[in-house]
Write a structure and sequence with these properties.
By secondary structure, the chain is mainly α. It has helices at residues 3-17, 29-38, 41-47, 50-64, 66-78, 80-88, 93-111, 118-122, 124-127, 130-146, 164-176, 195-205, 215-224, 242-245, 257-264; strands at residues 230-231, 240-241. A two-stranded parallel sheet has the order 1-2.
C-alpha cells in the first residue's frame, strides 16, 4: 500500500470511529461502505476497537443485508478448517496467538446469535460445532502459552552482539550477499540445507559471540529466525532434521561456505 492509499485508509477509519456508538440505522451509507471495504480485522490490528467495530459490521450485514450476512457466515465456517490450519502452520508464535484469538472472538460472536432468530435456524448446521471449534483453538493457545518462554534469536548472543544494531548488521550482511531475501527469509547460495548451520558453527568457534546453551534449541532458533523449521524425530517434518546439522561441518568444506561466512563477517566480530 503506497502513502496515498495509506493516508486514505487512515482518514476513512477516523470517520468510522466517529460512529462507534451510533445505532446502525443512523449510520450514513458512506460509512457503512467503508466498513464493508476494509473488513473487521483492520480495526482490531490498528486501533484496538475490534469488538465495537465487529458489532457494527455484524449488524450491518444482518439488519440491513441479511442474505449477505448469512452468506458471509456460511463461507466463514466452510473455510474454518483451512484458516485454522494456515494459522497453526505460521512460524511466528506471536502472530499465531493473535490470529487464534481473533478466530475465537468471531466464534464467540456467532455463539451469541439469539436462539429464536431466523439466523439461528439457517445456520444451525454450522453453529452447533462452535464449542468444538473453540475447544480446538483453546488447546492451540494452551500450547503456545506453555512455550511462551521459547528462546529468541537475540538471546543466543552475548553483549554487544545481541543489540538491535548488531542483529540488524548481521541480517544486512546476509541480504547483501544474497543469503536472505528482502523479507529476511533464507534463500541460500548452495541450496544445501546445512548451509545456514555453517554460520552458526562459525559463531560458536569465535569467542564471546554466542551464549553457551543446549544445541538443539539453539539451532532451531537460529534457523527459525530465517523462516526455516528444524525438526527432530518426534516432530512433524520441516526444512531440515536436527541430525543433519548438529555436528560441526568443518572449516575446510568443499563448498567454501564456512570460509565465505568468515570473510563476510570479519568486521562484524569487532
Amino acid at each position: 500500500m503506497d502513502k496515498k492509499q495509506n493516508l486514505k485508509k487512515i482518514l476513512d477509519i477516523q470517520e468510522v470511529l466517529k460512529y462507534l456508538n451510533c445505532p446502525v440505522k443512523d449510520i450514513p451509507e458512506n460509512i457503512l461502505k467503508i466498513i464493508d471495504e476494509y473488513g473487521f480485522d483492520l480495526i482490531n490490528d490498528e486501533y484496538g476497537t475490534w469488538d465495537i467495530y465487529y458489532d457494527m459490521l455484524y449488524k450491518r450485514k444482518f439488519e440491513i443485508y441479511p442474505d449477505e450476512g448469512l452468506y458471509m457466515i456460511k463461507i466463514f465456517f466452510i473455510e474454518f478448517k483451512n484458516e485454522l490450519d494456515k494459522i497453526k502452520n505460521d512460524i511466528s508464535n506471536n502472530r499465531k496467538r493473535e490470529n487464534l484469538s481473533r478466530l475465537k472472538k468471531i466464534l464467540e460472536h456467532f455463539q451469541n446469535i439469539p436462539p429464536e432468530s431466523l439466523m439461528q435456524l439457517e445456520l444451525k448446521n454450522h453453529l452447533q460445532y462452535i464449542p468444538d471449534h473453540i475447544k480446538v483453538i483453546n488447546n492451540e493457545l494452551s500450547k503456545l502459552n506453555y512455550n511462551k518462554t521459547e528462546l529468541q534469536f537475540k538471546e543466543l548472543f552475548k553483549h554487544p552482539f545481541n543489540t538491535d544494531k548488531k542483529i540488524e548488521d548481521l541480517k544486512t550482511k546476509l541480504k547483501l550477499k544474497g543469503y536472505i531475501d528482502g523479507s529476511g527469509q533464507w534463500v541460500g547460495l548452495t541450496r544445501h540445507k546445512k548451509e545456514l548451520s555453517f554460520l552458526y558453527w562459525l559463531f560458536c568457534d569465535k569467542e564471546n559471540i554466542l551464549i553457551p546453551g543446549k544445541l538443539e534449541p539453539q539451532l532451531k532458533t537460529f534457523y527459525k529466525e530465517f523462516g526455516l523449521i528444524v525438526y527432530n524425530e518426534k516432530e512433524q517434518k520441516g526444512y531440515v532434521s536436527i541430525k543433519t546439522i548438529d555436528n560441526h561441518p568443518g572449516k575446510d568444506d568443499s563448498s567454501g561456505t564456512y570460509k565465505n561466512f568468515e570473510t563476510a563477517f570479519s568486521n562484524w566480530f569487532e
